[in-house]
Amino acid sequence: MINPLGRLEGGLIVSCQAYPGEPLFDPDVMRRMAEAAVAGGAVGIRAKGLDDIRLIRAAVDVPVIGLVKVGSEGVYITPTVDHAVAVAAAGAGIVAIDGTRRPRPDGLDLAEVIATIHDRTDALVMADVGDLEDGLASAAAGADLISSTLAGYTGARPRSEGPDVDLVRDLASAVEVPVLAEGRIRTAEQAGACLQAGAHAVVVGTAITYPTSITRWFVDALHEEI
Ligand SMILES: CC(=O)N[C@H](C=O)[C@@H](O)[C@H](O)[C@H](O)COP(=O)(O)O
C-alpha cells in the first residue's frame, strides 16, 4: 500500500457521517457526499460504518479514514481491535481509533491495540485524542498519526467554540508523527489557522456535510437579530 500521508499534507479531509433516524443516514448518500467533496478538492474522506466505507472506497480515489462508532459515551470510536480490522477490511487505508487514556472495552492497552492492528492489517492507525497527554501516549504506543478529534469531548479540555488550535499547536510540536486538526472547524479561516499551528491536514465534518446543524446556525443567528 502506498503511504497515504503525503497525499493528505496541507489539505482538507471531509468527514461524511450521518446517524440512524436522520434523513441522510444512508451509505449511498454518504458516498455521494464524498464524491461531491472530492470534486471540490478534498484530499481525503473520513467515513463511519462499514457499508459507507466500502461504497466510498470504491467511488473516490483519495485516502479513506474509516471508523465505526459503538454508542456515544466513553470509548466509542472503533473501540476494539476486531472493529478496527473490519474497518480496514472494508477498505480504509487509515483506521481511526479512540486514542485517549480511558479504559477500553476489551481491556487492552493502546500499544497492544495498535500493534495488533498493524499485525493484522496494512492500515495506518490514527489516534483520536482529547488532550496533549493522550497524544504523547498515542505516539509512544505506535500511532501513525494523531488527530485532535476528541478535544472538548472527554472532559480533559474545555469545549472551545471553534477548533482547539492551542492543542493542535502543542501536539504538533510534541510528537514526531503527523497531527491532524479535527473538531469544530467551521470556517476556512479556522482551517488555515490550524495549518499555521502545525497541523499536517485538517478534517471538517459538520460545517460541510451536516445540513441540519448548518441550518440551525443560520436560524439561530436570525433569531438573535430580532
Ligand atoms: C467527537 C466525535 O465523535 N467526532 C466525530 C468523529 O468521527 C464526528 O462526529 C465529527 O463530525 C468529526 O470529528 C468532525 O468534526 P466536526 O463535525 O466538528 O467538523
Automatic annotation (TrEMBL):
Q: In its UniProt record, which GO terms are filed under biological process?
A: carbohydrate metabolic process; N-acetylmannosamine catabolic process; N-acetylneuraminate catabolic process
Recite the UniProt keywords alphabetically: Carbohydrate metabolism, Isomerase
Q: Which residues form a coiled coil?
A: none
- State a GO cellular component annotated for this protein: cytosol
Give the source's domain of life in one word: Bacteria
List the transmembrane segments. none
Q: A Pfam family this protein belongs to?
A: NanE
* MF term (GO), any: N-acylglucosamine-6-phosphate 2-epimerase activity
- Its EC number(s): 5.1.3.9
- Keyword Transit peptide attributed: no
Annotated metabolic or biological route of this protein: Amino-sugar metabolism; N-acetylneuraminate degradation; D-fructose 6-phosphate from N-acetylneuraminate: step 3/5
Q: Which Gene3D superfamilies match?
A: Aldolase class I
Class of this enzyme: isomerase
Q: Does the keyword Isomerase apply?
A: yes
What reaction is this protein's catalytic activity?
an N-acyl-D-glucosamine 6-phosphate = an N-acyl-D-mannosamine 6-phosphate
Family classification? Belongs to the NanE family.
Q: Could you tell me what this protein does?
A: Converts N-acetylmannosamine-6-phosphate (ManNAc-6-P) to N-acetylglucosamine-6-phosphate (GlcNAc-6-P).
State what protein this is by name. Answer: Putative N-acetylmannosamine-6-phosphate 2-epimerase
Gene symbol of the encoding locus: nanE
